[in-house]
Design a protein that fits this description.
The protein is 63% helix and 0% strand. It is mainly alpha-helical and 474 residues long.
């Protein structure tokens, strides 16, 4: 929070923004957060003073899950105190949307809120890109099994893929890579015409594939160079960051080409762009080719920037965007969605089971994505939970939205649920790229906050918090 205040004083935002810093409100937010941190730290020290046991798996899962709710409440304080137009529920929504890198917003006019709050929105997305737990692990230098378990409970990357003898060294390397990508992205934006404030804010949210911006029209008012630069970095950050560390370590570009998930992700993206360009051209859609490519990449990487209004595209083009929104980027990246690796694994498992219907004696175990190893039954079980949970909450959430918001269209109800579960940002109909979520009631707003956390934690590690067995003996 202090960084946001300093940024508000040091970084000029330009004449179209509110240059107020709201120092008194920020001091209250910082004081409340520090007091809460002191209470939590003191309580944990007292409860564990005679306990030298290693962290259990259920404790790691509980910490990873609860951290998102606790941090979400504290991240909402600046929105509540510095933006008088937001209610308590809307402040939580804005904070959770930032931390989960969803990018959906309830702020109607970005030019009216203090620039320190604009920077805070971007900073929360950047921190949420790698995850709240990753920040804790970095500060605590947590190594070994407990650190990996906490990371695995938050990240879409399987723990078995962390092929580093020293986990603390691996996470430091990850943060260095992440910071380096952010700095390069900011320099590019500045070179392509953005001012310093816009460059820093958009670099933070691009590398996090979050989508919060500084302008009411998102990316529409920026030039061709800035849009191409954004496309490049949205793609870079939607591919596993651990793959880049592996490339740096081995110095062999063939690892990138041989990575199956990355290859299928790019094939899917190229196919979607080609079909959409042809379909929009045949339907006399006036949107430029650059805007079409920009919006497709933005949706596929779950970033959520918008250039123009893709909600006016032909039906087939919007259906393609919807599919890309659900699938998302690669595991181990900052992108949201189900992840390409899970979809590939589901396709392989489905093919295997279909074969077994007419060849029941055949032993057909699908292979892991990016590996020659057979899939473990626990992974298949978790995949089943993730996919069924996603479908269940889509149906349940759409019905709940229809009841809570009877004035919304069925498309709008489903779109709001899909975009929050996939951590994407804007959607369609009443929640399209030119609209926001400010008109929702308090129950709907809080329900979508829960959906954003469910999607960010991959359903499993959020739902398990509601299991009585997890809290047994506590």
């Amino acid at each position: 929070m202090g960084i946001a205040v300093i940024a508000g004083y040091l970084i000029p935002a330009g004449p179209t923004h509110n240059n107020e810093v709201a120092l008194q409100s920020w001091l209250i937010c910082i004081s409340i957060t520090l007091f809460s941190a002191f209470i939590l730290y003191g309580s944990s020290r007292y409860l564990n003073k005679n306990n030298d046991q290693k962290m259990l798996r259920k404790e790691a899962i509980a910490i990873a899950g609860i951290a998102w709710f606790v941090c979400g409440l504290h991240a909402a304080l600046p929105h509540l105190l510095c933006n008088t137009d937001l209610s308590f529920a809307q402040s939580i929504f804005e904070a959770i949307s930032g931390l989960t890198t969803t990018g959906s917003t309830v702020t109607v006019d970005l030019q009216e809120i203090p620039i320190s709050l604009l920077f805070w929105r971007s900073l929360t997305q950047w921190l949420g890109g790698l995850g709240i737990v990753m920040i804790f692990l970095l500060l605590q230098s947590k190594d070994g099994t407990s650190g990996k378990m906490m990371f695995g409970a938050e990240s879409s990357l399987p723990i078995s893929d962390l092929n580093f003898s020293n986990f603390s060294k691996a996470q430091r390397s990850l943060w260095i890579l992440y910071i380096g990508l952010t700095l390069i992205c900011a320099l590019g934006y500045y070179a392509f015409g953005m001012n310093l404030f816009q460059s820093i804010n958009h670099a933070l949210t691009t590398t996090a594939t979050g989508g919060f911006g500084t302008e009411n029209d998102s990316f529409s008012s920026f030039g061709t160079g800035a849009k191409i630069w954004a496309i490049l970095f949205m793609l870079i950050c939607s591919i596993s960051l651990f793959l880049y560390l592996l490339l740096i370590k081995r110095r062999r570009l063939g690892d990138l080409r041989e990575n199956e998930e990355t290859r299928w992700f790019l094939i899917l993206l190229i196919t979607a762009i080609s079909v959409t360009l042809i379909n929009n051209f045949l339907n006399s859609e006036s949107d430029s080719s650059l805007n079409i490519i920009f919006n497709i990449v933005s949706i596929a990487t779950s970033t959520g920037y918008a250039s123009g209004n893709y909600d006016q595209w032909p039906i087939l083009s919007k259906e393609i965007l919807l599919i890309l929104m659900v699938i998302g980027g690669c595991s181990g990246s900052t992108a949201g969605g189900l992840k390409v690796s899970r979809v590939l694994l589901w396709a392989r498992f489905s093919k295997s089971e279909l074969t077994r219907t007419f060849r029941p004696q055949m032993e057909s175990i699908p292979k892991m994505v990016n590996s020659s190893k057979s899939v473990d039954k626990n992974i298949l079980g978790q995949l089943f939970v993730i996919l069924t949970s996603a479908f269940f909450f889509l149906i349940l959430g759409s019905l709940a939205m229809r009841i809570l918001e009877p004035e919304l269209s069925l498309t709008g109800c489903m779109a709001s649920v899909i975009t929050t579960l996939s951590n994407n940002g804007p959607a369609f109909a009443e929640f399209g790229p030119t609209n926001n979520f400010a008109h929702l009631s308090t129950p709907s707003t809080l329900m979508l906050c829960l959906f954003m956390i469910l999607g960010r934690l991959g359903f499993v590690y959020a739902l398990v918090l509601f299991s009585r067995k997890l809290w047994k003996h506590y």
